[in-house]
Amino acid sequence: MTEQDKPVSEPEESAPEGATDETAQAEAPASVRPARRAPPHEEEAPPEVLNPRGQTTLGLLMQVADPYVIAHGGRDDIPWIETRAQRLTEVARRCRDHRDLDLKMLHCLLVVDYIEHLQAVYVLLSPVKGTRAILKVNVPADEPKVPSLTGLWAATDWYEREMHELFGMEFEGHPNLSPLILYEGFEGYPGLKSFPFNDYEEF
What we know:
alpha/beta, 4 helices, globular, 203 residues, five-stranded mixed β-sheet, Beta Polymerase, domain 2, two-stranded parallel sheet
């Protein structure tokens, strides 16, 4: 093939001066624009089903916390019960001192923001028996108060300080709710869904 027989390719059109990738994509035909990503699919949580060990622990919880149980459930071998804030200390003490439950350890304390209300979640553990159980307490979002459990478990001290500074949860009777993670004078509660994470200044 001679040079004359070779096909002549048309010169590529360059983007106008000052155009950016965004403007080029916006002006491109729909057929060549990058596809938008679909929002992630939210999978439904599996149903709460307790195994035989979990059912046995739940039965003990219901017996120990009666008549202060509002709701109950659980999954696998970890049952949960919900009680009122006014009864939290009594129910927690019963769970700790009951011979068959023996929930001597506060494994974790966390708070969940459900917008209309906050939920305090206490994960209890028996180091001897290996059983676990959860106590839940719902409180109004505009007045999030629960009694402090520092008198039952020493480890509650730091957990309550952390939940106080992240969610604004008040733990009545706590000896010193000073900041644990954030600096003194930090404004707002970054654990809440309403906290404006995008309102910041770059400098």
